[in-house]
């Protein structure tokens, strides 16, 4: 792997310039930016285990280890942080309810293996087949339906404490519109902090938890040691129910492919087009990191838009920053007290945060449509999106013998089938097929307005 060269004077980045993946600033600046990337990913990464019941410290550990593995596999050429993927929330929740944690972990491992295999194919054959399988209307529908399928979960948590949930949600929205730059990009994390503090002052931490020996959250936090090993679990491939639940995880692969491809293209757009040649390695690396996490009790990983946002704001794409970030996350994972703090987040706080967060996942899918100017005057596009979203939002299900398929699986299959079969017929009948285009660079939803917008003038569009 290449060593980093110092960019300029090691302290500043000239206007219009970027710090390339193989460059770095001074080590103090690199250290600070690495910690900043951990803060950026933290708000989203800890929510996944908090919502699925997985150990927070374990997920954080494999997030850090996965990031380091990603850097090794991509030959230190592709800056990325691997945080917890929200695409796993729905299948993990369903799998735990049906077959337990072991079955859910088996599903995570299966997704990682399949993603790595896709990466091998991409590395050998290129990206053309991915673009053909998932044109923008299909990719957007799959991403959107995963977020909207989680809406009932957000409502359940919201109902647990409506006042706390509302305060959390309002705080998330206010932080996103009040602040520019980094603080605006971590609005969900800051909103959770506000909700957490409100819950603490209103007595939520004095309520005994029957699942934790009738001990209060405050007692659990106080008694937890500062240093200790994370909690590990092994996947269960033996129980008959495991193979039934694994089917629910397979659509997640499509989302992870879209996220990884979009991440690579985003970095390439902002640094050097040659970065695109690492797409196959990125998929292999994320697949391997997901398998590693699922093999020992962590949640599946993905490249993080939050960290793309930080890179875009700082113009620093140095992989040295991510070595620092991954190492710092690993250190945090060995603090049970920190894990108990996250485990103590009240349901109302999660309800407020996830109302925004799950909606934003859906909006990312819609953003793919907008960025690619998907033509919704064409019936094949209309029905691809419409049917898939309704199936996911309503929570359609299908029992087929020993297998049970939920809204995410059925919605994904519907999107793929309607688009490709509908296009086949539309081409034959010349009724207006849609031949799509490549998946775009999927960047962060937030970010600062252009100077013209901020000043009230007309900015170039």
UniProtKB/TrEMBL annotation:
Residues 452-461 have a biased composition (Low complexity). The keyword Kinase does not apply. Pfam families: Xan_ur_permease. GO terms for cellular component: membrane. It is found in: Membrane. Residues 437-461 are annotated as: Disordered. GO terms for molecular function: nucleobase transmembrane transporter activity. Keywords: Membrane, Transmembrane, Transmembrane helix. It is a multi-pass membrane protein. The keyword Transit peptide does not apply. InterPro entries: NCS2. The chain crosses the membrane at residues 54-73, 80-98, 104-130, 137-156, 162-179, 186-205, 237-258, 320-339, 345-368, 380-396, 402-421. Its main location: membrane. This is Nitrate reductase. It comes from Microbacterium barkeri.
